[in-house]
Design brief:
This protein is mostly helical. The chain has one domain. Helices cover about 65% and strands about 0% of the residues. The protein contains 4 helices and no strands. Helix 3 packs across helix 4. It is rod-shaped, with a radius of gyration of 24 Å.
Length: about 150
């Protein structure tokens, strides 16, 4: 199974912690003292900077996760459907993702293997011979887009 390796890699990619809003910003204006009103601009600016850092970290996390899913998609296609071109591989991956992602990557892999086996059987029934590896396909080439993963 390929999924456990990707699950271990995901554990090394923790989601950034969201910044808590300072209590001062959540109070009603009528409840603020003169000291609070003096501190308010600095507290607001610090909070906005913290939110900007969080958003940057979140975007970096999401990009890294998307890259990991793209590699996972390529690994599945290379392992279970080496005969598939990019379009067929992405269709198989998209269907497997839709059917299994809520249960984790292991379920996506299980769904993919079943769908790849079905597709291979259909090709064999239609053509009379088992599908062959796509000519010129390099398993280490750029991975197909894992567009169904978010």
């Amino acid at each position: 199974m390929l999924a456990p390796d990707f699950v271990r890699k995901r554990a090394l990619l923790p989601y950034p912690d969201r910044v808590a809003q300072p209590a001062l910003l959540g109070r009603m204006a009528a409840d603020l003292s003169d000291e609070d009103l003096t501190r308010l601009p600095a507290v607001r600016a610090e909070y906005q900077q913290a939110l900007a850092r969080y958003e940057t970290e979140r975007q970096q996390h999401d990009a890294a996760w998307q890259e990991m899913l793209t590699r996972f998609c390529a690994a599945l296609i290379g392992a279970y459907a080496p005969w598939a071109n990019e379009e067929v591989g992405n269709v198989l991956y998209g269907a497997a993702w839709e059917r299994g992602h809520s249960s984790g990557l292991q379920e996506v892999e299980l769904e993919f293997t079943g769908l790849a086996s079905l597709a291979s059987s259909l090709i064999q029934a239609h053509t009379g011979e088992a599908p062959k590896r796509t000519p010129g396909k390099d398993e280490n080439a750029a991975a197909p887009a894992a567009e169904h993963a978010t």
